[in-house]
Specification:
The complex is a heterodimer of chains A (651) and B (318). Chain A has 651 residues and is an alpha/beta fold. Chain A folds into 4 domains: 129 residues, 3-Layer(aba) Sandwich (Rossmann fold); 143 residues, FAD/NAD(P)-binding domain (3-Layer(bba) Sandwich), CATH 3.50.50.60; 165 residues, FAD/NAD(P)-binding domain, CATH 3.50.50; 63 residues, 2-Layer Sandwich (Alpha-Beta Plaits). Helices cover 27% and strands 24% of the residues of chain A. In chain A, helix 10 packs parallel to helix 11. Chain B is α/β, with parallel strands linked by helices. Chain B folds into 3 domains: 121 residues, no CATH class; 36 residues, no CATH class; 120 residues, no CATH class. In chain B, the strands form 2 sheets. Chain B has a 5-stranded mixed β-sheet with strand order 2-1-3-4-8. A 3-stranded antiparallel β-sheet of chain B has the order 5-6-7, covered by helices on one side. Chain B is globular. The relative contact order of chain B is 0.11. Classes of the chains: A alpha/beta (651), B alpha/beta (318). Chains A and B meet through helix 16 of A and loops of B.
Amino acid sequence: MPRTGVFVCWCGINIAKTVDVEGVAAASRSLPGVVHAETYKYFCSEPGQNLIKEAIWEKRLDRVVIATCSPSMHQATFREAAQAAGLNPYLVQIANIREQCSWVHSNREEATGKAVALVTAMVAKVRRDEPLQAFTLPVNRRVLVIGGGIAGMQAALDIADAGYPVVLVEREPNLGGRMAQLSETFPTLDCASCILTPKTAEVARHPLIELLAYSEVREVSGYVGAFTATIARKPAYVDWDKCIGCMLCQEKCPRKTPSDFQRGMGPGKAIGVNFPQAVPNRPVIHREHCTYFQTGKCQVCARICPVDAVDFNQAETTQEKQVGAIVVATGYEVVAPDQFGEYGYGKYPDVIDSLAFERLNSSSGPTDGVIRRPSDGAVPKEVVFIQCAGSRDPDKGKPYCSKICCMYTAKHAMLYRHKVPDGQAYIFYMDIRAGGKRYEEFVQRAVENDGALYLRGRVARVYPEDGRLVVKGVDTLSGQNVEVFADLVVLATAAVPSGGAPGLAQALKVGTDEHGFFNEAHPKLRPVETLTRGIFLAGSALAPKDISESVAQASGAAAKVLALFSREELLADPLVATVNESHCSGCFWCRPTCPYQAIEEKALRDRQVATVNAGLCQGCGACAAACRNGAMKLRGFTDEQLLAEVNALCL
Amino acid sequence: MSERESRLRSLAEELLASGQVRTFIGFGPGYEPSRPLPWFAQDPAGAAQLLLNPFCGATLARYLLDDGSPGPVGVLARGCDGLGIERLLADRRVSRDRVHVVGVTCRGAVDPDKAYREAGDTPLSAELEGERVLLTTASGTREFPRASCLYDRCLSCADPSPRWADDWLDEPLPPGKREFPDVAGLEQQDADRRYAFWTRQFSRCLRCHACRQACPACHCVSCSLDHPEWLDGGISLDNNFMYHFTRAYHVAGRCIACGECQQACPAQIPLMLLNDKFMRDIRDLFGVCHPHRPQEKEPLGQFCPDDPEGWREGGAQP
């Protein structure tokens, strides 16, 4: 007969106010197998835990039920206390009488009755609990960082500096991500390149960072400590090992092409790098734009190349990398602006998005940093900035705030005024969100020193008139309709997850929110972890973030990886599925239900049966529900244990 | 002897004689002509006794599990047998290289009990002709409507032919569409009346487990309904409800609509009504066609990263 102890927590007045805790303890004493019951104000406190330990010793308890807050709160605390007293930690059960009882009820009598019922159920379950042992997993102390923007680079550098090897995968031909497109950065106005390029160079020369540029992660299998990533290297049609980075090819390439990097503000070439400081400084041929690939003639680049590096026959190659942890830093894109018919994007060349404006401002950009409007190259004398183009707009499917636009729009207004002193910037906004160190002051500077005119309200329409654009909107502060004649209109378009994120999320089996941003394990307390152990998040993959936040979060993710790598072995939760082989028919219908591919085959003499890879299993229990034979059991949640709970409540 | 029957016999003889199969499962003589029994032919002499006539009723797929012979097994397959074989293949209880399927198109089997009631005497032979059935008894041959002579399950059958076979005895017919008229009738009643209805049905259950044993989808090595934590052996209304709900849930999305469970039930519990309700709901909620084609996605057992939260009518993706 088990010797069960019941500990009923007051949680100050959180529980005791609504539940008669002494009554619950008294009722518990008459439950089968219960040899001890007591109450205390805070069992989670040091003296409270000591009371549990003493009772385990003195009453020789072999099962413990603690009626207290949610197990997600303090189950680990109480398990550790029980373990310190010599009890297997999995023989401790929590009856949640706070979140599921006292907090949601007001009638003391009924709440007390419910608390007794919850304790009764857990006493019945704990009697059937079995001692379980955590098992160990070896750790491969190498990390995969996906994304070579500022967040990915920071995480890679932090981990590599601590002495662990890093595989850094970047989809584009060069490092830098979105930040490489920016001109200056708020709130300091230092140039993006000036702070970015030292980082890209540091990454490139770091002996522990293996940079796989122009590559994509296709598949990921395995589990914490032992992931295998399949990484595809897209064909650059240039042998980067031979290439010396002279860029004669780019110079001589006769084909001017539209350039994603320049956001349409200037042409690119069919072969070349995105910008002169690109790391690695190696060109790629954009097959869709290359004359040779289109018509079979040209090959100017191949002829001009002094080292014969151009290779039109290059094909995609894949390789596998074994790593112990993964940092996802896939960043953001801006929403396709073709959704904004009312602003005339795509129809009028002088309506551009904010990334395009960054390129116009950039001293290494297509206009060498002179602000010229696309239609006729004239310097615009009046510029209208429209904030929240897509953001905070449930109709366009983006109800969230893109967070960075208020600040960069203020920056744009400032930079514009610095370059065009007689110019006027108008900013249509909904609210100014300038939370952050020196952010509000920055916006005030834009208004006070640089004459930015903020108009609170939305723009209804943009249309051309006499070579200029008429911006019609409403100033909701004065209640008047406003019409501004502008030479250039800049849309602060919503930030969205980068295009590859959904596929990657599937490969990683990590959840995303309804917009495609990766889900963190806990929005406040575990912001860089995912629900899959060993996979961490950094930067705008999680939600729109500015540079300083991305860097801070990247270092946070790096710290988590380093904590993981600080041990040779990991302790894994034993609450995983197991197979009773004598019951298993080998139908394997458990397999399609498993989100983690944890179910494998094992040969018995007469048939194949299922077996669970405990490293992969996350203990979700889907297989146990799918198993008609009742052969699949989730440890700690077996049919017997759960039925005991249900029977105690219902019979 | 019909032409199909003689082709069956010669084909089975050939398969057995050449060693292509070690056993051939079909129908053979029963204790009266209207009740042929499953027949395990193991040599050409056994094959010569195979029968193929409108009284051949039982679905044969499940007998593949009872066959102990080490070599490949030949089996006669109508539409229901074919789906049953596919079910067993999908559940990995039978391997494809161990089955040799001889396909035949079925227009429905004559229920000997119904035939006896209609004809008023033991039927000796039957012939299907369109919407009519010609029954021959000692007193001669008479004509009856199809609906009054065929098994209930055959009347709603949508699969006259198996969808594939290694050999064919005749031309296969494409599958039709299964409708669920009885389900709608039951759903129109209020909850109390439905409860009363099922109470009446399940209170008759003897818990003989014949429905489970007959079912081509219900063949676990160790049935969870034999595990004492789920169900003790006692016959009570509670236990009977538990048994039947569990059974129905375990074949939900997997039922091939062969009707063997209902046919096997000595208490005449309308189990297909329950199965039909599940089939209809799964079709309407998840857009999965029915009876379930075993190699398609399991409607109720597939982790899908883009699964919509909740469900939508018609199974549409968001």
